[in-house]
Specification:
The chain is mainly α and about 190 residues long. The protein has eight helices and two strands.
Length: about 190
């Protein structure tokens, strides 16, 4: 069953799963599937880029948590709660988001398209890094991949995605999505 479409409900589901993964992480130095990243880097990435993105297109904000390097769970929880607060507020979610590099849209849509999708995909990274369940909703993976295929050239040229990893055309949707964004779907942490 695919994730909810409505921004607040979708974020609640995706961020809730990521919160469970953060809480289940015992070793923040575990290597992650992203080259040169650890489990901690996955959380730090998600906490680091969103505030500037939101500020670049709106006047909305939330109270930041501690630095992720000091308290990954505290940093993540503050951001998850802050974003959820914006999305749960109909006026905030519907407020204009006018980022110089994007077409005008409402804040809820921007958060869903760029941030909630990023949290969804990085859930796989954190789960793999920490030997937790990496199961992503298959229908959501298929929908996201279909949308990304339509803008592959612009995604690759952004420098934020590496080349696609080879994968069988009949691979499960999560494997195809992660391969598309440059991950090896068979990646596992090195054996100590």
């Amino acid at each position: 069953m695919a994730l909810p479409e409505e921004p607040a409900a979708r974020h609640r589901a995706v961020a809730g799963r990521f919160t469970d993964l953060v809480r289940g992480t015992a070793d923040w130095s575990s290597p992650a599937p992203v080259t040169d990243w650890t489990a901690l880097d996955v959380v730090e990435h998600l906490v680091a880029w969103l505030p500037a993105f939101v500020a670049g297109g709106s006047d909305r904000q939330w109270t930041p948590g501690p630095p992720a390097r000091q308290d990954p769970l505290g940093a993540w929880q503050a951001q998850a709660d802050g974003v959820q607060g914006l999305l749960d507020d109909p006026a905030a979610a519907a407020s204009p988001f006018n980022h110089p590099r994007l077409p005008p849209q409402d804040l809820g849509t921007a958060i869903t398209r760029f941030y909630t999708a990023d949290v969804f995909m990085h859930s796989w990274d954190l789960a793999r890094a920490t030997a937790q369940d990496d199961g992503l909703d298959a229908e959501t993976c298929a929908q996201m991949l279909a949308g990304m295929l339509l803008m592959e050239d612009s995604m690759r040229s952004s420098g934020q995605y590496g080349p696609a990893h080879p994968v069988a055309p009949d691979a499960p949707p999560a494997a195809r999505l992660m391969a598309f964004v440059g991950r090896d779907p068979a990646w596992a942490p090195p054996v100590a």
